[in-house]
Design goal:
Chain lengths: 668, 214
């Protein structure tokens, strides 16, 4: 009846997962009660869960990602604590099978359910606004994508309480991940969760490539698009080309595990190195899927807070697309030690180093943007400068690793761990924090507290360097990654410093929450009444904060690069706005519960597959098909916003803008 | 599928233009955006198949002492199978033309023929799979057979999904008539159906033709 699922799946004899699960369940219950008592379910359902508004979907992605950041960080601090404690004769507090689950969960969650959703969240929120349009190409599909990601995240977290997680590392390499060596449900949780969220990501890619190539404001030609839109396009193209490979690869591993196929097994002619090749054909572009939009965020931030157009706008685009293409030519550098031979390794080594060139172009572009500008040292700018410092070091250690002889020495060592954390935290996480501070007022209508924001930055910056610089040293000394026990007591001081660094990052995360709560409490003193709190240059600052759900009453006409800046300067010079345009009623997509229902069936079906509950899996598939037929039957896609409402809102906005620009022209 | 006077995909005011895509005139109309997005989806599907092709190519000799392709494949059977699928795609094209003419009878007849030929294809494939398993060549036998069944079976699963979709399309056209949004869905279906042909041609060549070379 319930397949493999019995009471043994609940970890009654393991206090750590049991207590954690109970705390999480209680927190969920308290949140649910709180929402019920305030009567917010209807609001959440109508305004967020079923929303097809790209801004709301973006916010949901970011909330999901921040929750997963806390989960992933909890795993991180547990690992650091274990490595500080389990030295010499001590065995620490985590048994090996539990420790292995923790580092697997940490990597999986941080990449798939923290970094991906947060980057996609920013793309959702920002890209349509910057393109000067009202939504993405397929708004309902967008909502479905979000809920599929959430469904994957849910299954990963269920594994904490029901069953176990994979002990294979975040990419589940065979033969260890095969049925013979990992008979439990852990790898199945991993596979099913990633398949569900991977489908969502592929659909997101379809949506954003279509949006950016086909849906832009009049006059917004390719070479006028903000760099964030360009990097989002490049990232979406990479998702479109890379995620199907992940889907195919994980599907093959599932066939091995569920039906006894022989793709990657030791027997039957299977080849586990085939898995390495396939997974890294996805895995290397994935790095750029994350970091290219991050580069886009830095470009917006540096240009805005230097008060200058971005230096080398076109070279930035070329560099982005060069990275986009090169990223598919370097996957083998993840396993130089496979033994493909010196020639093959040399080709991939050189290709890997080549990526340093366009990246270097970008770094210089940002530096030259700051040069001669009036730099305002706001929180996002702190992150941008911190990024340049940190990322360049991370890039240099990457060049070292790109040399096959060096890689043979430090392969799978803590040196590698330090390198990729340096580029992911220094590159992606700093960008995310910068973007969070930068676009928060646009999303919610008030700014975040500056002082606490800077404190958070310093926590991340100092904490990161303390946590990972010692790992470079240890890696060079031969410390391999994923060690549950440290045999050499002389490593202890370095691991202790790393622990302190992780704790400082933890303080930064706590301060982020404090900053948010404090900023909400004092929001009346920090309202963004103008819609343009940072003296911005791109179109999202043209509309109010928060924008009406249709974004723009009339799609802006774009003349030249820096669409909004040009318009603003003209208005300031002439001390008047452009003539009032001819308003028309606006059609907007209807909200739809499709995403929630699809994710419900996906979660049920996924859970059933993990536990071999076949009747439930079939029921889930039939349900999913029924939703498809029902959804495909619809005739109504849009509702109309009446002309009076559009005009009333637009006139109010014009009054605010006029006053704001008048003040600006006085101060000039 | 008339494109005149049609709403752009998102938000109005500036009427959609059938422009070159350089973006000088604002958002494109739905008749451009919907098939464009669907093409991108089909491309991502082709990437998925390319991973399966690469796997097949690297495992084709890993027979682990079991049967190899030339002992299992029957060219004449596959020829009939291929003929059925290509004919199905051709008839699907005719159905789209009939739908453009707003001819209900011919649209339904041709879509039905599309489905029937697709079903013939699928039946032959299932017959082939069953007889291979009966001959002692199931996918669990060797890495080669795993990759064969997965590659060809994945295509078969797509055809099955396409047949289900075809059924809903016929029902929609029957009850809703030739409305623009129904027409766009039919266009997407035909893109999907033709794409499956393209993939089959690759399977036919790489798996069956090369596999049965003397």
């Amino acid at each position: 009846m319930f397949g493999r699922l019995t009471w043994d799946a609940i970890p009654f004899n393991q206090p750590i997962p049991l207590i954690t699960s109970l705390v999480v369940l209680m927190a969920l219950a308290v949140t649910a009660i709180w929402i019920t008592r305030n009567g917010w379910w209807g609001y959440l359902w109508n305004e967020y869960f079923t929303s097809t508004d790209h801004k709301k979907i973006g916010i949901m992605y970011v909330v999901l990602a921040l929750l997963m950041l806390v989960r992933g960080f909890a795993d991180a601090i547990m690992m650091r604590a274990q490595q500080s404690l389990a030295i010499g004769n001590s065995q620490g507090y985590l048994p090996p099978e539990h420790y292995n689950q923790i580092f697997s969960a940490h990597g999986t969650i941080m990449i798939f359910f923290m970094a991906m959703p947060i980057i996609i969240g920013f793309m959702n929120f920002v890209v349509p606004l910057q393109l000067g349009v009202r939504d993405v190409a397929f708004p309902t599909l967008n909502n479905v994508s979000f809920w599929l990601s959430a469904s994957g995240a849910l299954l990963i977290n269920v594994s904490l309480f029901v069953g176990e997680f994979a002990r294979t590392g975040w990419l589940a390499f065979p033969p260890l991940s095969e049925k013979a060596f990992s008979p439990g449900v852990g790898v199945d949780y991993y596979l099913v969760a990633l398949q569900i969220s991977g489908v969502g990501t592929t659909l997101t890619a379809v949506n954003f490539v279509t949006t950016i190539l086909k849906i832009r404001a009049p006059g917004m030609s390719y070479l006028r698009m903000p760099v964030f839109c360009w990097t989002s396009l490049a990232s979406s193209l990479l998702m479109l080309a890379a995620f199907p490979v992940l889907t195919a690869t994980l599907a093959m591993l599932m066939l091995d595990r569920y039906l006894g196929f022989h793709f990657f097994t030791n027997d039957g002619g299977g080849n586990s190195m085939l898995y390495m090749n396939l997974i890294w054909v996805w895995g290397h572009p994935e790095v750029y899927i994350l970091v290219l939009p991050a580069f886009g965020i830095y470009s917006e931030v540096v240009s805005t807070f230097s008060g200058k157009p971005l230096f080398g706008y076109r070279s930035m685009i070329f560099a982005t697309l060069a990275i986009c293409i090169l990223s598919f030519t370097v996957w083998l550098h993840h396993f130089f030690t496979m033994g493909a031979g010196a020639d093959v390794n040399a080709v991939f080594g050189i290709a890997s180093m080549l990526i340093g060139i366009p990246t270097g172009v970008k770094i210089y572009n940002w530096l030259f943007t700051m040069y001669g500008g009036r730099v305002r040292f706001t929180v996002p700018m702190h992150y941008a400068i911190g990024f340049m410092f940190t990322f360049v070091i991370g890039g240099l250690t990457g060049i070292l690793l790109a040399m096959p002889p060096v890689d043979f020495v430090v392969h799978n060592s803590l040196f590698l761990v330090a390198h990729f954390h340096q580029v992911i935290i220094g590159g992606v996480v700093f960008a995310v924090m910068a973007g969070y501070t930068y676009w928060f007022p646009k999303a919610f209508g008030f700014t975040l507290d500056e002082r606490l924001g800077k404190a958070v930055f310093w926590c991340w910056f100092i904490g990161f360097h303390l946590a990972f610089m010692p790992l470079y040293v240890l890696g060079l000394w031969g410390a391999t990654r994923r060690m549950q026990h440290i045999p050499d007591p002389t490593w202890a001081p370095y691991l202790d410093v790393a622990f302190v660094g992780a704790a400082i990052i933890g303080l930064g995360i706590v301060l982020t929450v404090v900053q948010l709560l404090y900023s909400i409490k004092t929001r009346d003193q920090r309202r963004d009444v103008t819609g343009d709190p940072w003296d911005g240059r791109t179109l999202e600052w043209l509309t109010l904060s928060p924008p009406p759900h249709y974004n723009f009453a009339v799609l802006p006409d774009v003349h030249g690069e820096e669409a909004y800046w040009t318009r603003k300067q003209t208005a300031i010079k002439q001390d008047q706005l452009i003539a009032e345009p001819n308003y028309q009623p606006i059609e907007m997509p209807l909200h739809s519960p499709t995403g929630v229902i699809v994710a419900f069936f996906a979660s049920v079906c996924g859970f059933a597959i993990i536990w071999y509950i076949w009747w439930l899996a079939i029921l889930g598939l039939v349900g999913a098909f029924a939703v498809f037929v029902w959804y495909a039957w619809r005739d109504e896609h849009e509702h109309v916003i009446p002309l009076e409402e559009v005009i009333a809102n637009a006139r109010e906005r014009r009054r605010i803008r006029k006053e704001h620009l008048h003040n600006l022209s006085q101060s000039v | 599928m008339s494109t005149v006077n049609e709403a752009p995909a998102v938000g109005l005011t500036h009427h959609g233009s059938e422009d070159t895509g350089l973006g000088n005139r604002g958002p494109q109309s739905k008749s451009i955006v919907v098939p464009y997005g669907f093409w991108l989806f089909v491309l991502s599907d082709m990437v998925l198949f390319s991973a399966l092709f690469a796997t097949y190519a690297s495992l084709v000799h890993a027979t682990d002492g079991g049967p190899a392709g030339h002992q299992l494949f029957h060219r004449s059977l596959v020829a009939v199978e291929t003929g059925a699928l290509l004919a199905s795609s051709f008839v699907c094209g005719l159905a789209v033309i009939a739908a453009k003419q707003k001819n209900m009878l011919w649209t339904q007849v041709l879509l039905f023929a599309t489905g029937l030929l697709g079903f013939v294809f699928l039946a032959i494939e299932i017959y082939e799979f069953r007889s291979m398993i009966a001959e002692g060549a199931p996918p669990q036998r060797s890495a080669f057979l795993s990759s064969f069944f997965t590659l060809v079976g994945c295509h078969g699963a797509h055809v099955t999904a396409g047949l289900l979709w075809l059924g809903t399309m016929m029902a929609q056209i029957w009850t809703k008539g030739f409305q623009p949004h129904v027409g766009r869905r039919l266009l997407c279906f035909s893109i999907f159906w033709h794409a499956l042909d393209i993939i089959w041609v690759a399977i036919f060549t790489i798996v069956y033709l090369i596999g049965t070379l003397p």
